């Protein structure tokens, strides 16, 4: 008896990978030899898990250029060991100089956080976005169009996560130790394919509120 129902089908993915590897090698025969030697990326990308917002693809960069962590709605939460570990490794071991928090318009997590539909476990994660909404509710309720309101929350959430990143002891220690490190905020627009840089870059400990400062 053959049970094939549980096997799934990766044949398209494996076939496409073969073609991709072949093309890369055709352009640069040493590409994978160099890649296997190690990584030294300039960027850490904190992005949304959304399948349409793939960092290396949309930035036109290559394998080895961007260290990445992604979760629903690009959050940097101070109790999330995954993001915090990625952040520490990126700064202290890989020595990235630029951290990009990237949100995107039309974000499902942002839309879900603005609604009341239950999503099970995910509701706990979305709570963080509801907190951002609450912080800016006067401004957000002024916006009548629901899509524009959601778009604004996408931006406000990026600002919040940029600062959450800066409040970590890892980022503060890097600045105290005179490391060249900037945290940027960006929003990706699905309908145009363009990345918009928000005016919220932070590159020194002086730019963060004193309550969050740690005497490192
Ligand atoms: Co999203």
Summarize the structure.
By secondary structure, the protein is of the alpha/beta class.
Task: Write the topology of this structure.
Layout: H1 11-27, H2 31-37, E1 43-48, H3 55-59, E2 66-71, H4 81-93, E3 98-104, H5 108-114, H6 122-135, H7 137-142, H8 146-167, H9 169-176, E4 182-189, E5 194-197
Parallel strand pairs: 1-2, 1-3, 3-4
Antiparallel strand pairs: 4-5
Helix pairs in contact: 5-6
The structure holds cobalt (II) ion.
The site of cobalt (II) ion has 7 residues, from helix 5.
Number of strands: 5
Give me the CATH architecture, please.
3-Layer(aba) Sandwich
Structural class: alpha/beta
Query: Low-confidence runs (pLDDT<50, min 5 residues)?
Result: none
CATH topology: Beta-carbonic Anhydrase, Chain A
SSE series: HHEHEHEHHHHHEE
If you had to describe this structure to a student in words, what would you say it looks like?
The protein is α/β, with parallel strands linked by helices. It has a single domain, classed as Beta-carbonic Anhydrase, Chain A, CATH 3.40.1050.10. It is built from nine helices and five strands; from the N terminus they run H-H-E-H-E-H-E-H-H-H-H-H-E-E. It has helices spanning 11-27, 31-37, 55-59, 81-93, 108-114, 122-135, 137-142, 146-167, 169-176; strands spanning 43-48, 66-71, 98-104, 182-189, 194-197. Strands 2-1-3-4-5 form a five-stranded mixed beta sheet. The protein is globular, with a radius of gyration of 20 Å. The termini are far apart. The mean pLDDT is 96. Residues 48, 50, 73, 104, 107-109 line the site of cobalt (II) ion (CO).
